[in-house]
């Protein structure tokens, strides 16, 4: 089973690189019914490992609308969203000489990507699903004889006009459209942040992963029962 340092190393890597997607996917896999039911297997896991897993599970929990991971992702977006895509750093061991000899050992500076992040997009999909259930238009309940609105309409219309048809028109639900725009804007920010990593793609590894076949859910469930026999 898992060793504490393996789990902790994965967490540290995900945290350092702001890779929320991988962290959530690993935790969701460990909490799936086919894995969580393995009582004999989990009994062999140490107390320290289980405690750390509980802490990670709480961090990635969907309770309170994914509060913990949402807050962390928001912090990253606000901190790095408007920052430069690259930063310039001085390489160690360079630029140590001064004066006329600087040209012998000049300061070597390089630019590296800055502020990479891979978000857990499930949060934004959830936001859009719930927001889509809101009505795009709200039925108007304004009556012709009600105060200020009627007075404003009367400025632009004659007293003999029938204002009921105007006042009964549905109102645009700007809150819904504003929420949709906010979610899309945040996704675009993270899309930009995901391109900031300094890693170079490994073509052979990518091709290997593309050829991997996922196990059928029924087979996973059967194997889960088989292991516990």
Automatic annotation (TrEMBL):
SMART domains, per the entry: RasGEF (SM00147)
An example Gene Ontology CC term for this record: plasma membrane
Lineage of origin: Eukaryota, Fungi, Fungi incertae sedis, Mucoromycota, Mucoromycotina
SUPFAM superfamilies found in the cross-reference section: Ras GEF (SSF48366)
Molecular function via GO: guanyl-nucleotide exchange factor activity
UniProt cross-references to InterPro entries, sorted A to Z: Ras-like_GEF, Ras_GEF_dom_sf, RASGEF_cat_dom, RASGEF_cat_dom_sf
Gene3D superfamilies assigned: Ras guanine-nucleotide exchange factors catalytic domain
A biological-process GO annotation: Ras protein signal transduction
Source species of the chain: Jimgerdemannia flammicorona
Pfam families (UniProt xref): RasGEF
Protein name: Ras guanine nucleotide exchange factor domain-containing protein
PROSITE patterns: RASGEF_CAT
